[in-house]
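# step 3/5: fold
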Amino acid sequence: MQPLGVPDPPTSVIGLAGDSQVVVSWTAPENNGGATVSSYTVTATPGGRTCLWITGDLNCAVTELVNGTSYTFAVVATNNQGNSAASASSAEIQPLGVPGQPTSVIGLAGDSQVVVSWTAPEDDGGSAITGYSVRSSPSEKSCRTTGDRVCAVSGLTNGVPYSFTVIATNSVGSGPASLASNAATPSSKFVGLTPSRTLESRQGQPTTVDGKYWQIGKRSARSVTEFQVTGRGGVTSDADAVVLNVTVTDPSAPGYLTIFPCGANRPSSSNLNYTTGQTVGNSVVAKVGAGGKICIYTHSATQLIIDTNGYFPTG
């Protein structure tokens, strides 16, 4: 009688990538050591995530993997005498999924249109984002872009408030829709201006349109900057809301900006989110507060740049 022993290693290990997982399959060893193989264990490298096969077709899914990370997989067979040596590793495989939700969706109202901007999802699913689609509510009007994080939804009715959602797409497919933007109401009263730099906190940069709010230094954490918008860059004293492009650069820590009319309570929502060291911008429509000012709350310290692009007069 042949003495019993551990199995030979499994062979032909391959993987089928999914969203945050890989389904690994293999071929049973030709020599089972004289005893039935009772289980197989699959191990991922890097990370060491495993799955255990007990019965059925020779495959199992290794889950909770990081999309876009390359993994190899090895399989060990077990009988009542012990474990085989590990199989030869599979080829490298990357799990991939659809992108996450875009964030910070903002609508910039114009005449019969709204220009929508947003921030890319934190998770691209492990595959580069190839496009975005924007949809309005009501009316289901839409626009698409292949890379830029801004596009104009046209054919809207002036005086009607619209909200907007954004969906990101990669090579796998389309992800979930973003949270809806705040309402933006198209209006023929919008006054477009030649963009002008109206705040520049950094040292050594070109001056602002009137020399004010220039080289004012990094905005400190949990501070509020009162920013004069009327009477500057072409914005008249009767402006009810201003259209700004707001950019942060060199943040000291993750944080956000909230822009609100001076004299009003600060809302709990944000207009722009950022991470350490990031340069990121967003379009903002800000209601003008007391004295023709808006207030800018800075959650963590950052340099701040603002351009004024237009305004809506009162009435």
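# step 4/5: annotate
The two ends are 99 Å apart (CA to CA).
# step 5/5: archive (pending)
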